[in-house]
């Protein structure tokens, strides 16, 4: 809607009725209608220091927030003006002008700081307006407000506070410190400095831990923690004349430096101020701001705020929790960069952990705030220990995974060979063991296996025990069979050799027998020749005898017979028989037996 970012002039948002804060319905209605994200700029500071004038400059108007012209404090409560953002289309610039602090007529410091705190809680840019210079009073005032603001924030946020460091960063408004009628020169030890350096220097802490130094440092530390982003602008006096009606003067009548400084300030606010954001990244729009206003004002009006000491504790808790988070995130970052899992040894990991842990603790110490009993540092230590355990487990797992992959890579071909039966042979077990040994050496030679290298190998070998046994049994079975075959072969060969030798012997015997036979035949032939010779001789003798006898007596017939002793003699052939005269008749008698012959010789 057109009206959502356009108001003709400011309206009162929170009225300050005798110390009681009242939220104005008219302002809430305006807010509830604005759906655009809001950049909220609030200004606070001592009364009559030109706050309203400055806000009008930001609205781009000469008139708007009422500018006082007398010593009487002018603005009351908190006034609001929503205008279109001059640099961010679709955004609304919400200007909050506040009642001045330290009004002597009012004399209520508590009410002052409540308004101050509300402004800081509602804004995304918090302009702290002071006169002339940064002094201890201005620092103390800002510090008090930060304490109260912290209490309010802790009480009104869910879960009793902001736990996330990023959220804290978003939730805190940026501080812009404006110094009006700045008459000093920005110089230190003869060196020129910027306004920001001046602010930085004013908030610098002293070294030491004595009570005085602590009192000096505490407000500065609180301001630094409370406002992580800080900027400072110094303004010259707007004019050399008496300035009771500054807004009526033309630009030409104003100090040129002042006009320029105002332009720089406005440009910074328009370009750098962030959208008001709540924890969880919620961008504040009209209804959301309306809600915040009601919540904070109710909290203040309940008058049940804890004392200042508790506020410091709350701050300490939040700051230290954030410091722990920062330290842990630094540790994670370092370990992420340095650790290459799996580490070769556990010691390597422990060394990296220790150096990162040392740095993380340093970061914590730098960012911690009033961790007097070191309870937060102990908590950090516990969390770092847990992280170490976790990393050790991750490292073990990385090593196991790496070793498993490596084992599979190296031993895979052996497993395949076993499957294909290449080791299912006599002696296969030995070959399998040899190959395993060879592969183990190869495995050991591989670098960066991590701390699980041996365990993973042993586990693998154990898991392959059954395979090894199977190879062994197959080997035994096949060896026994082979032995049997070998024995049978040896037996067969022996039998064959025996048979062959029997054949040889038989042949030899046969040869001998044949030789004997040949000799025998030869002898027989010899004998036959001899016998034939003898017979021929006998025949001749007989013939001669017969002749003689014939001559002497009448002729008689003589039979000569030859007797055969055995069958072999028969085989020698039919012996010729000759009729001889009977022995008795003719006087023939056995004469002798030749030893080499079975032939019985009968001598006539
Ligand atoms: N010396 C001086 N006077 C200024 C400056 N800016 C504005 N003034 C004048 O100071 C007077 C008070 O101005 P305001 O803007 O009403 O001051 P304020 O801080 O809002 O005052 P309260 O609302 O009463 O707290 C006016 O007369 C302005 O013209 C400045 O930079 N220097
Ligand atoms: Mg004013």
TrEMBL record:
Task: State whether keyword Transmembrane helix applies.
Answer: no
Q: Is-annotated flag, keyword rRNA processing?
A: no
Q: Which organism is it from?
A: Marmota marmota marmota
An annotated GO BP: cellular response to type II interferon
Task: Report the sequence similarity comment from the record.
Answer: Belongs to the TRAFAC class dynamin-like GTPase superfamily. GB1/RHD3 GTPase family.
Pfam families linked to this entry: GBP, GBP_C
- Which GO MF term does the entry hold, naming one? GTPase activity
TM helices/strands, residue ranges: none
Name by which UniProt lists this protein:
Guanylate-binding protein 5-like
* Source taxon at top rank: Eukaryota
Give the GB1/RHD3-type G domain ranges: 35-274
Q: Fetch the CDD domains from UniProt.
A: GBP, GBP_C
**Sorted alphabetically, which SUPFAM superfamilies does this protein's record hold?**
Interferon-induced guanylate-binding protein 1 (GBP1), C-terminal domain (SSF48340), P-loop containing nucleoside triphosphate hydrolases (SSF52540)
Coiled-coil zones: 478-526
Keywords, alphabetical:
Coiled coil, GTP-binding, Hydrolase, Immunity, Innate immunity, Nucleotide-binding
